[in-house]
Amino acid sequence: MPEARERPPRRDDTAADIQSLVRLGREEPPPVPAPSPQPFLEPAGWPPPDDEPA
Q1: Which residues, in sequence order, are CB contacts of 48 under 8 Å at separation 6+?
Q2: How many angstroms separate the Cα of 34 from the Cα of each of 14, 24, 30?
Q3: Higher model confidence: residue 51 or residue 39?
Q4: pLDDT digits (tens, 9 = 90+) for 9-43
């Protein structure tokens, strides 16, 4: 089987995912979102008031 040819490294940062760029030291890790203080809230206006038709 023939040997693989060497290729120069890609210079396009948009061709890589963020985890690869973080490992290479080219990007900072993305911020971790803060947890919601009350994750199980009902949607605003629910249940509808009795005087409005549903």
Answers
A1: 54
A2: 27, 26, 12
A3: 39
A4: 766 656 678 888 888 888 899 888 888 777 777 66
- At residue 39, the pLDDT reads 74
Structure tokens at 46: 């629910």
**Residue 16 in contact with residue 22, Cβ under 8 Å?**
no
The pTM is what? Answer: 0.37
Q: Tell which residue, 41, 14, 40, has the closest CA to residue 27.
A: 14
Task: Report the sign of the C-alpha dihedral through residues 7, 3, 20, 24, in that order.
Answer: negative
Give yes or no for a contact between 54 and 48, defined as CB atoms under 8 angstroms apart.
yes
Strand, helix or coil for residue 33: coil
